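Bumping my old thread because nobody answered last time. Still need a sequence for this structure:
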């Protein structure tokens, strides 16, 4: 007899198999018991017929509670009405542990309660589907860059300085000095791009976001490519192609999970290139025409981003922002000193900014001036400025926020469900 996983079931029709798992649900109707087993790979209905199993087995079946761990032995049979098209005619089972008073029952629970029980909530069908899609997105990201000859170079988490503004830095004591948790790996990615040509880093980033929004975590994952000899237009193309690749992979490999989440698949199927490209200035004109109280130079808030994104079925690329609202390292547009060659990609359906990137400033004098303007400590950036002294080249990159992309693709109303254990201003537990 073979030990199998539920997702292998169709290869074992009419065989007796053993499956290790947990009780998702169990109920009885007279002399027939119905047990939904989950094993991490799927859900499966097992039928327990009183007259066909030993008395002891039926009695033990009656004792089973939600989330008890069991190993089931039975025959695989085809049943078109069962989810997955197969079920098990149970012959016997072993109980490893009888679970008692599992807190998450099939009734409705509030989100705070579920978040406090996140370590258990992960077992539910919806959360399982979300994290399977997250896994698929991570794999697609890595495959995309690996296929295109990028080298993964890991960047540090403990850093001496800010890269994305000082207001969201997490400070920690480091042997008598201050250190900060990385907000981005970008500056190190730039060093790596000068060695490898095509670089990416993919890891956790930390920002002390004091806002409680549906889009912000204090610990989130970002993938950041950095490309030597690459200007802003090409940078946009890399980002667009990445998003299209991810969507196609998820549609191809995780349709089942999207259906569990009741995601509108047609909306995702409409995501095709080329994505519209509009300048910040054009957006301001449009917003003013549509009645928003916004001036040139203001940053977009979430209502503005949603309004811009709603004009399109696809993600939209917004470029050339005022330099005052963007990071010190972005290159000034040679055709207009007031704007930088930066770009953000806004997701449809109000999911907001999923990608932020730019061409990088190569002029060391301008960089030093910007570092001073931002009141950053120049000596912390000496190594970074070295990159402009030894074979400086035009280069660009971007960062894509993993959880924002997961939220959008899964159609979730809040970012907290996109990561196994969310960290926000009000949550450090479990
Ligand atoms: O636009 P950001 O701040 O860009 C950077 O950090 C650049 N250094 C990236 C680069 O060019 N290499 O952040 C990039 C993306 C955002 O578009 C968003 O998707 C995500 O990171 N992000 C967050 N996601 C969740 N919670 C937060 N608090 C986030 N802050 C940024
Ligand atoms: Mg940004």
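Sorry it took so long. Here it is:
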């Amino acid at each position: 007899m073979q030990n199998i996983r539920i997702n292998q079931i169709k290869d074992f029709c009419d065989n007796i198999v053993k499956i290790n798992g947990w009780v998702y649900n169990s109920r009885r109707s007279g002399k027939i018991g119905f047990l939904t087993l989950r094993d991490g790979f799927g859900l499966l209905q097992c039928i327990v017929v009183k007259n066909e199993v030993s008395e002891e087995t039926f009695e033990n079946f009656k004792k089973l509670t939600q989330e008890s761990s069991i190993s089931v032995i039975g025959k695989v049979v085809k049943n078109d009405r069962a989810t997955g098209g197969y079920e098990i005619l149970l012959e016997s089972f072993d109980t490893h542990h009888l679970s008692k008073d599992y807190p998450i029952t099939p009734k409705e629970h509030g989100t705070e309660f579920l978040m406090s029980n996140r370590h258990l909530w992960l077992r539910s069908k919806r959360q399982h589907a979300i994290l399977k899609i997250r896994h698929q997105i991570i794999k697609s990201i890595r495959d995309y860059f690996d296929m295109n000859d990028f080298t993964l170079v890991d960047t540090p988490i403990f850093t001496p300085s800010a890269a994305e503004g000082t207001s969201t830095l997490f400070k920690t004591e480091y042997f008598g000095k201050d250190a900060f948790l990385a907000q981005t790996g970008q500056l190190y990615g730039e060093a790596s791009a000068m060695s490898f040509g095509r670089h990416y880093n993919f890891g956790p980033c930390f920002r002390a976001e004091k806002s409680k929004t549906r889009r912000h975590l204090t610990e989130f994952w970002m993938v950041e490519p950095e490309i030597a000899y690459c200007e802003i237009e090409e940078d946009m193309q890399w980002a667009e192609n990445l998003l299209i690749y991810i969507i196609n992979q998820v549609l191809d490999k995780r349709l089942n999970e999207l259906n569990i989440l009741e995601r509108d698949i047609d909306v995702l199927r409409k995501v095709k290139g080329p994505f519209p490209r509009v300048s910040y200035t054009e957006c301001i004109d449009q917003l003013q025409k549509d009645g928003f109280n916004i001036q040139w130079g203001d940053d977009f808030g979430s209502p503005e981003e949603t309004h811009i994104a709603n004009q399109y079925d696809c993600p939209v690329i917004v470029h050339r922002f005022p330099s005052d609202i963007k990071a010190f390292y972005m290159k000034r547009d040679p055709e207009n000193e007031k704007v930088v060659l930066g770009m953000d990609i806004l997701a449809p359906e109000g999911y907001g900014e999923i990608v932020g990137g730019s061409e990088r400033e190569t002029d060391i004098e301008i960089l030093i001036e910007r570092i001073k303007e931002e009141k950053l400590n120049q000596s912390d950036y000496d190594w970074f400025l070295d990159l402009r002294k030894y074979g400086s080249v035009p280069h660009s990159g971007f960062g894509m926020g993993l959880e924002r992309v997961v939220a959008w693709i899964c159609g979730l109303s809040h970012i907290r469900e996109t990561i196994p254990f969310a960290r926000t201003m009000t949550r450090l537990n479990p």
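Residues 30 and 183 are 59 Å apart (CA to CA). Let me know if any region looks off to you.
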